[in-house]
């Protein structure tokens, strides 16, 4: 199909597909806008376009969904483009739209988009031309963004702070994020994802929100701040080039098996996690000269396995680790054995002089922390750790006893 011009009204693609060269919204010489509706009550719509544009002075040009499930708009651009219209709308089902970017040319989105479907960048640059306002921004409302592992695929927010629902994809070949000096807020859809592309940007910043977990596995180079506001951020690659201050809010978690490049401050009941809770050998490294600061209510979390070296580790590298006299410690039981002396939970530290008053947050656990001057490390001897299976058997026995007594009373 050739070019389509929508002026007023709607053009509807029902539960089928549409291929067009150019989609133009709006009246050329007037202020009447155009709305392109994808899908209807019978099904979703699928459209692949080589260009989208607006014309005239209308301010309500939009591409919207029309079904209770997300329709898919794919752009296979033939040249660079900027779209000032809106993806999504205020009507029923109008935000049920997913967006796919194909081909190398750059697409700039400058409308406050409200679509809630996924955003997929398979090739070329998807660029922000507007900052997020409220819940809406260049890349929709909490849209899940995935980048292909190809050199040309990029998400670029230079000049415009933006919010996305989650971030995934990328890899050693590409699928990178460019911040410039802007801030990207990630995580509002509460999904758990892993991102393997590089995040770059002089003075660019990252904010992690939402209850899910985000793992960053590449050698990121952005130099602005990193804020873990809600949920979990895992640094699982060489993040030594991301040199900005890292802040962990109360209730949030910073951890991983990679290297963090900025000084870390943990507030309130925030958690510093040695590893990623899935292994007993995870090591969270500090880059050279980087410091960690905690308050008395902050928590350091370690995994413990069945041998002296089967545990998570925080490895310092010339920086200071401010440990409190009432330091809270939490353990993840991955086969922990009573009587085991775990060596080197924290390495490269000076003697805090207060390990005897540290607090184990695990109910029923008893142990002793100590400083090893020979290795400049914190060790831990586990004395008592109630086994989950033991507690389960006890609860089962109590429940069975209650049932038996009940039966006797009935008889």
Describe the structure.
This protein is mainly beta and 411 residues long. The chain has a domain at 225-411. 6% of the residues lie in helices and 40% in strands. The protein contains one helix and 43 strands. It has an eight-stranded parallel β-sheet, with no helix packed on it. The radius of gyration is 27 Å and the shape is elongated. Residues 389-397 and 402-411 have low confidence and may be disordered.
Keyword list:
single chain; elongated; 411 residues; mainly beta; 8-stranded parallel sheet; disordered C terminus; 1 helix
Fold blueprint:
Blueprint: E1 4-6, E2 8-13, E3 17-20, E4 23-25, E5 34-38, E6 46-49, E7 52-54, E8 62-65, E9 71-76, E10 81-83, E11 86-87, E12 97-102, E13 107-109, E14 119-121, E15 125-128, E16 144-147, E17 154-156, E18 162-164, E19 166-169, E20 176-178, E21 183-186, E22 193-195, E23 199-200, E24 205-208, E25 213-216, E26 226-228, E27 232-235, E28 238-239, E29 246-248, E30 253-255, E31 259-260, E32 264-266, E33 271-274, E34 283-286, E35 292-294, E36 299-304, E37 313-315, E38 321-322, E39 328-333, E40 341-347, E41 359-360, E42 366-372, E43 377-384, H1 388-410
In brief:
With 411 residues, the chain is mainly beta. Helix content is 6%, strand content 40%.
Number of helices: 1
- Outline type: elongated
The whole-angstrom Rg is 27 Å
Poorly predicted regions are 389-397, 402-411
Strand order of the largest sheet: 18-21-24-26-29-32-35-38
Describe the main β-sheet briefly. Answer: 8 strands, parallel
Helix content: under 10%
Query: How much beta, percentage-wise?
Result: 35-45%
Number of strands: 43
Distance between the termini: 81 Å
pLDDT averaged residue by residue: 92
Structural class: mainly beta
